[in-house]
Amino acid sequence: MSTASLDPRVEAERIRALYANVPAAFVAAMTVSLYLVGTAWQHVGHAVALGWLGLMLALQWPRFAAYFAYRRAPEAVSTQRWARRYGLFIGLSGAAWALSPFLFMRPGDPITHAMVMMGMYGLGAGVVPGLAYLPRVLRGFLLIVFVPLVVQLALLARSDGTEYAVLALATLLFMGVLLGFGRNTARTLEEGLRMRFENLDLLAQLQREKEVAENANRAKSRFFAAASHDLRQPLHALGLYASALHDSATPAQRDIVSNMESSLRSLESLFDELLDISRIDAGVLVPQTVHFPGAPLFEGLRSQFSGEAADKGLSLRVRAVDVVLLTDRTLLARVLANLISNAVRYTAQGSVLLTCRRRGMQALIQVWDSGCGIPDEEHERVFEEFHQLQNPERDRRKGLGLGLATVRRLCALLDLPLTLRSRVGRGSVFTLHVPLGEATSVQPARVEPPLLDVLAGRRIVVIDDDLGIRDSMRVLMTQWRCEVWACATAAEALEALGGAIPDLVIADYRLAGGVSGADAVHALQATFGKDLAALLITGDTAPERIAEARSFGWPVLHKPVRAVQLRASCSALLGVRTDPAPMP
User: Fold this and answer.
1) What residues does 536 pair with on adjacent strands?
2) Of 176 and 20, more confident
3) Structural domains of the chain, count
């Protein structure tokens, strides 16, 4: 950044500060003027004193007029013109001050001489900070004021004693000190103004760079959401086909199908990591704070990951006191599952330990591992999306680097402090502080009655613009003994249904032509009534689209949807009915 580019702004700021000080300068000038007049009132003619005071007062009004004119002037007006005007007023005012030693310091009155000198010294010291914005004007003012004072002291030395010569030399020295102080003050003020504008330019540049980065991030998110949606479409269809094939396959074929389903689940887990981030950012996850015992949660986590740990030759241990926790049980389980999964994934040998102990009114829950450890400089970055320390080959079995990013977001959502301690080569420990609950407030576990097969004979409309998904849904739901109409649009569905009344409509949220699944559901409900059950399925990961889909109040499933998840959701929506509609 060049100095020249800053000069106009620095000059403009100098002038602004000068004119901003005009009211204070007026008060100071009139105070010193009254002080000098009062000091010499008994020793000079009253007409002289009042005439000089009137002159001083008259010289202030042009400066006030310039002050009000400056405040009304547009910013584009030349600062040099305002500087010259101010310098002119200061020069005239200095000339009036220069008269005071000759008017008030009469021979033979040392007390009056001392009082006048004190006033002049105070005046000189007082103007330095205000006039330092214009160094040349300051130097001129000090010379105009103090040179006549030195001359008068030299003249008094001839009549009142040689000590006045010493005072003249002292006054010259004091003037030199003020000139030096003024020069340093002017330099400091200029440097301060330059630094101020440099900082403002830097902040503006950072703001521009931030906006560019945010725009790029939004563009990346839109691209990634669109790509994620397009990738989920065939994956969703493939999962449904695999589920349909599994039921009709031979024992030998089922091994192949099981391997296919295992690979699909790996892909689904990667997409689910992305979905978790999006759902948190969309604000659709609302914590349900309850009192619940910690032991079943910890035991469930041990059972969930003990097999995976054993496959790597690791021991997974749980050491937890009997506590009641107060938070969202499901989301806390997600946090701990991600931490344990991460620990198992990046620990080559040794063990992973889950502990819980009381600490005051909180439970201290920790996940320890004997893995490779995390360098201090990486403690913050490991919580960033897609950042992985031990996966340079981007092995998909090690995830996408979203586990800890999800953990941090969930902890923030639950207001649970999360800390990390680690030593390279020795392992890491993640610590959560969870409020303790009350045992008397624990709700007994609900025992859900087994849900009967309520899908047989149900009329289900599937609306999706992807042919592969329509076919896979038709094959799968036909095996569930449903009557299925799989169509690309609501208009096609209404035409295909004829006079049949559907029990449920399943619609993809993003349809062709900018139409949403909600539009399709509303079209069918307009014909068959608001009681028509609806289920939305979406492959979007953009937070705003997820929030939009959920805003309609219908259940929302995220692609790829497992067959068991789809069946459970359909059964839950239709399970209230015990009289399936007869087949036509």
Assistant:
1) 507, 556
2) 176
3) 3
